[in-house]
């Protein structure tokens, strides 16, 4: 059996194509059933996320299986042949295994080091098991992929440090203020950046999130999502007094938080520390506010430096991860090669067991004079001698299979022991 992986992801396909595929792949059960019905496919797994659609399969005939899988993906996304050829990738054997290991370890993700993809791969595997679409090869391969992902997480820093501006803002707040437990956060603006920041803040022990927006209805909507308090810009100055951390991201053309507003808020807070993060372009907060004592002000460029530095750090860790993945590909490849010897080894052992049973049967006349314990000892002795005789040939056969050199030995064993006759 040959392992292949065919798919489309964020590196090869624009968002318009990925959108079309994700809509049509909303019913992965149906897609998997259709894939498993292709005659050349013996085992299969279907993975569909917002950034990738991939099929992993064990196949008897590579060329026909690839053509049939292309047709399935073509129909799922209603793709033209031109779009298909431009976006699709196909991996075979070790390359397919390596790609799967990179995906499960998040090396191939849009945000390298993100944890969600491993859960998505596990869900896809669970689904293929439920549909009886997996077998010996995919079961072994997927469990091996989970092991690789764990090694990469524990032996490298691939998941360390912030690599999004919103996440970097929250991490910086933790670094400056220490524990965020009991702190009040003011989000100015109710757009995507504010929403991402709110998501990262959840679970950090903060006591309150206040959402201020020019359109009060939008403030209410985002505040409801995070059990926060909505506010309009008309009482922004009052809310600044309550905030330990301010994260501002609006589309305003000029400053909406002036230096005087921060100074006034600080007096109302009795000079308790304020941490201001301005991730808007143009900026929302007057940069002069950063000169006030007990005020820490950072803009998007400051955060981008952190993000770039952390991404550079992740790239270095990714190099370590690639070494781990290469090691694991070799290990899995070695196991896969030994499978070629399994039928011969099983046949050899079956023939030996048959001979033993036959000889024990012919020895029944004198064996019956022995006690039960003595009979058992005779059987143990025969089994021990047989295993020792077979050990070296079987071990040698497996070793030769690692270098693709087992074929002549398999042929010799079959001929010498007349296994084909059986």
Task: Walk me through this protein's architecture.
With 422 residues, this protein is α/β, with parallel strands linked by helices. It has 3 domains: 2-160, Glutamyl-tRNA reductase, N-terminal domain (Beta Polymerase, domain 2, 2-Layer Sandwich), CATH 3.30.460.30; 165-304, Rossmann fold, CATH 3.40.50; 337-416, no CATH class. It has helices at 15-24, 28-36, 62-77, 81-87, 93-104, 116-130, 136-155, 165-177, 192-201, 216-225, 236-242, 259-268, 300-338, 342-362, 364-367, 372-402, 407-416; strands at 2-9, 41-48, 52-59, 89-92, 184-188, 208-213, 229-232, 245-248, 274-278, 295-299. A hairpin with a 3-residue loop joins strand 2 (41-48) and strand 3 (52-59). It is elongated. The two termini are 24 Å apart.
Structure at a glance:
The protein has 422 residues and is α/β, with parallel strands linked by helices.
What tags apply to this protein structure?
Rossmann fold, 3 domains, Beta Polymerase, domain 2, alpha/beta, 6-stranded parallel sheet, 422 residues
Topology:
Elements: E1 2-9, H1 15-24, H2 28-36, E2 41-48, E3 52-59, H3 62-77, H4 81-87, E4 89-92, H5 93-104, H6 116-130, H7 136-155, H8 165-177, E5 184-188, H9 192-201, E6 208-213, H10 216-225, E7 229-232, H11 236-242, E8 245-248, H12 259-268, E9 274-278, E10 295-299, H13 300-338, H14 342-362, H15 364-367, H16 372-402, H17 407-416
Parallel strand pairs: 5-6, 5-8, 6-7, 8-9, 9-10
Antiparallel strand pairs: 1-3, 1-4, 2-3
Helix pairs in contact: 5-7, 5-13, 7-13, 8-9, 8-13, 11-12, 13-16, 14-16
């Amino acid at each position: 059996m040959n392992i292949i992986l065919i798919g489309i992801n964020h590196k090869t396909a624009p968002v318009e194509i990925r959108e079309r595929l994700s809509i049509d792949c909303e019913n992965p059960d149906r897609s998997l059933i259709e894939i498993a019905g292709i005659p050349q496919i013996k085992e299969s797994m279907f993975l569909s996320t917002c950034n990738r659609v991939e099929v992993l399969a064990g196949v008897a005939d590579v060329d026909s299986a690839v053509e049939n899988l292309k047709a399935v993906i073509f129909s799922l996304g209603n793709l033209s042949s031109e779009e298909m050829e431009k976006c699709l990738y196909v991996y075979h054997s070790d390359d397919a295994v390596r790609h799967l290991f990179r995906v499960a370890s998040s090396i191939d993700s849009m945000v390298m080091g993100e944890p969600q993809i491993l859960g998505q791969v596990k869900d896809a595997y669970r689904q293929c098991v439920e549909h009886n679409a997996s077998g010996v090869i995919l079961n072994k391969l997927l469990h091996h992929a989970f092991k690789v992902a764990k090694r990469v997480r524990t032996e490298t820093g691939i998941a360390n440090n912030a690599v999004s501006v919103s996440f970097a803002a929250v991490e910086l707040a933790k670094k400056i203020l220490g524990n965020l437990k009991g702190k009040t956060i003011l989000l100015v603006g109710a757009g995507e950046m504010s929403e991402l920041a709110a998501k990262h803040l959840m679970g950090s022990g903060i006591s309150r999130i206040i959402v201020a927006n020019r359109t009060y209805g939008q403030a209410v909507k985002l505040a409801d999502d995070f059990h926060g308090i909505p506010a309009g810009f008309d009482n922004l100055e009052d809310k600044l007094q309550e905030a330990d951390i301010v994260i501002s991201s609006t589309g305003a053309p000029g400053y909406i938080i002036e230096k005087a507003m921060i100074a006034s808020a600080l007096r109302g807070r009795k000079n308790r520390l304020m941490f201001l993060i301005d991730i808007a372009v143009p900026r929302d907060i007057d940069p002069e506010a950063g000169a006030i004592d007990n005020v820490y002000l950072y803009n998007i460029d400051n955060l981008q430096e952190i993000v770039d530095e952390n991404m550079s750090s992740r790239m270095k860790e990714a190099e370590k991860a690639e070494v781990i993945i290469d090691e694991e590909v070799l290990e899995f490849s070695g196991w896969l090669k030994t499978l070629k010897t399994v039928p011969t080894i099983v046949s050899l052992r079956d023939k030996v067991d048959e001979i033993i049973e036959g000889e024990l049967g012919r020895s029944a006349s004198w064996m019956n004079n022995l006690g039960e314990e003595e009979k058992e000892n005779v059987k143990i002795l025969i089994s021990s001698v047989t295993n020792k005789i077979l050990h070296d040939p079987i071990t040698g056969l497996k070793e030769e299979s690692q270098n693709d050199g087992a074929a002549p030995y398999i042929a010799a064993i079959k001929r010498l022991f007349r296994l084909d006759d059986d």
